Structures
1.
Amino acid sequence: MVISLVSLCAKVVVSDHSSSPCWLRWVPRELFRPLLEAAFTSCRPLAVGELVQRWPERTLRVGGQRNQGQTAPNRLCIQALLLAVVRGLSDPRCALQVLDLCGLQGDEGGMGDSMGGWTLTVALCTMVVQAKAGAQRGQKKEGERERKRISAMEREKDIKRERGQWEKGREPNGVDASSDQLCGILAEEELIKGVRRRMEIERKQVSTLIGVAGDTKENEEKHQGSDVLVHVRADLFVNARSWERVHMALSTSGPLKLQCRYLRVEEISVLSIRTLLDFLPRQGLLGMDVRYSSLGVAGLAELLPLLSTFPALNSLRLHYCNLDFRRHYPGLEDALRDLSQGLAQLQELKRLSLTALRLPGQLRVLLSSLPQPLEVLELPYLTLSPGDLAYLSCSHHAYTLQQLDLSENRLDENNLPSIRRLLSHASNSLQHLSLSGCGLTDGLLRLLLPSLGGCWALKSLALALNPLSMAGLMDLVRMAVRMPSLRQLLYPNPLEDYQPGLPELPSSAHLLDWPLNDTPDISATSTQLNRVLMDNRRSDLFLTCDLLNYDKDLIN
């Protein structure tokens, strides 16, 4: 990547914070963006805060998809940004109206000092609540100043009126002592009346202010959004520990309004999820991710109609949500019908991910009702039956799939024809395919290679944790180098690289836990595979067996 001269100069400028008072006032608005990027890259939180507080444009976007090797912004810089947004609410130099932080979060517990999704969500909600409290304090101070100003004006009017009355009471040609004494007594009485009148006026003003405050509180719900200065858009991660704070931030009406693009919830009840969805703007939510929540069939059927009220929702992910269709119990058919009808109401759904939901034989019931063909379908750990795969290979979804994950669904001679038919139908659109942990042996892979090689649009292929020998792995790599669009291949360690004692047909769990041979043996395998790449001039194809760090989204 070539670094521009502007970026290099911006990095030098933000490196010296002591000079910022000299150049900040003269910076043109088109240079604020490269300066802010340089401040994030160089981890200069003070520079981040000063630039954001004076942000000259209506929109500020920080985050988005990162390139390979690029880390998430430092947490100190993110904290400085959030504080500067609150300070900018009262800064006339700040023109910010929309703050887009979608994709800003790093991995929870990952390397570096980035801010994870849960931490960022809590920080955002705290910022929204604090901004509301600050605005209330500012309004209270402004009201007090206005009350004092009105009182001072009234006192000045009374003094002028009393002075005029006293001057009118004086005679122009000499006044005797008794007249002077009488005028003094009258003036003193009028002054006493003026003080009483001013006290009564002040009491009325205080009562009026209290009444106005009460009316404002009563009508606050009717005028939500009228006092919003900045709309904050982000991806939210909510669990039981952060639910109360997120709920408070979403229900707060103040200068900052929190909006959500993708909502991820973990280990919270259906009622809590419903409460959050009720407070979200209907036009903004694009995706819903529910994990480790005991929804059950009834809970999911209850949520789907509510999700249908979000017209832009195009992604639904359900991970370990205690949906078990293997056990037959009274009402199962009604529950399946409710789920099918609920999914049919999601008019824009393009991405569906179902992990470990235990629904063998029911894939047709769930997918046939979708109004549009899916582009992304993830079905790992679903124990799919041959009937499920047969339906999928002939469904209207097969021709539009761009991403397919069938990991940990065991493949054999019975369902292999369905997989080959599915790959044939998706050959023009499929870009990412994962068949990790599917029990592919050398013989099964040999039958599948022609179908894999026909997927000319494929960019990433994951086949980790399959029991392949070195000969089978070499066949896989030779096929991969003939696929012009392929950029990443996650291959399994060959059986020869494992220490002795593996079962004859090891499962993915065996391959994951079984110790490997010494490093030289693994290096020899990598050398042989890279030689195939060099012989075919495929330096653009990345081979890896690192399952934990593999990420298909990091393809340039």
Note: Residues 117-168 form the longest helix (52 residues).
2.
Amino acid sequence: MSSDESDGDFEGFSETDVINAEQEVLAAEERLRVILSEQGIGDDSDGDLNESENEDEGEEEVHIDERGDGGDGWHSRFDIYERGLPHLFTPRGNTGPSRVMGAEKEVLDFWQLYMGDQFLEFLINQTDSYANYNIQHRPNDNKMPWSIPTLPEIKAFLGLTYQMGINRKPSTKLYWSTDPVMVTPIFSSTMTRDRYTQILRYLHFSNVANEPRQGEPNYDPLYKIKPVVNHLNNKFGLEYIPKRNVTIDECMVPFKGRTLLKQYLPSKPHKWGVKVWMLAESANSYIQYIDVYPGRTVRTEGSLGSSVVKNCLEGANIAGQGYHVYTDNFFTSPNLYLELWENYDTAACGTVRNTRAGLPKDIMCKKPVNVVTRGDHQFRQKGALLAVSWKDKNCISIVNNTQ
């Protein structure tokens, strides 16, 4: 470019320049949206918050007034206080860790808090029982001599298993490879490969002789893992009392092996696995209670979401103590929140699907009046509940009684 061209007067952007710039901005926004979506950040991925604008067409617009939707009890007269007295926060003890670990303690000491020798002895006995059961009933398939694992041996077995989760290899036998490229000396120096695979084959947490079969009245798809789940839940509660704000959500434990518990969720980062509901403290994500989803074969009383929330509160031993629980739109409903408020002394807050019964439909529809541009919002209250419709990229609906 010549000096004349570079030093000339700027005459402004042409219409083409502006159009191109706008297109580049839109393209950049779309790339960012895709990246955030892939990482689970941004719009709620559970359903109704991602509905397209085309689906809004044809829905009747309901104008907002103080009476709410046809006198359904929801209103915007906030000079009237309807909630009653808030719950006092009365946890079962001092919140936080139940014991103080010294600075000299190591990772293994913290692990021992939750596993402990007593539980490991239980694991050894159940594994030995299952091994003897197989040797007795299928001797031709179990010819390798068996000896009950010792306590140090089962700890070594678990340690090697944890290490496999950190140092990933295509197959178990490669951890005992002597190839200079693949060798991992700690495995062969700790335990032979045959002994490791033998313990792994017989590893058990429950008594196979008492296991109820499918079709029997007391059949439980969680029977094989229930002892370890119950043990961990008990330890979670003993070692820590959560602060007031807790959250309940689902987690996918990646697994592609054989089990009736395996779920397929294509929208999740790990599509195959075992679904687990978890109650955790909001401040530090400490897990207080886990509830393994047994699948649709087990029917719940009421909706699944409501049952999960109540089971988690009761299982974590925090019901009736004035806790605040935060949920996403899979769980949230006015009926659940009222039940928690009245019967569990628990307040709640969370996003809600507009299809839930009992919502103020004048503001919780796909296209509420006066909730148009980003930042617009409308409030309604009814008894102990507050409903909020807030415009972000989409309309976000929230039900709350924690404030």
Note: The radius of gyration is 28 Å.
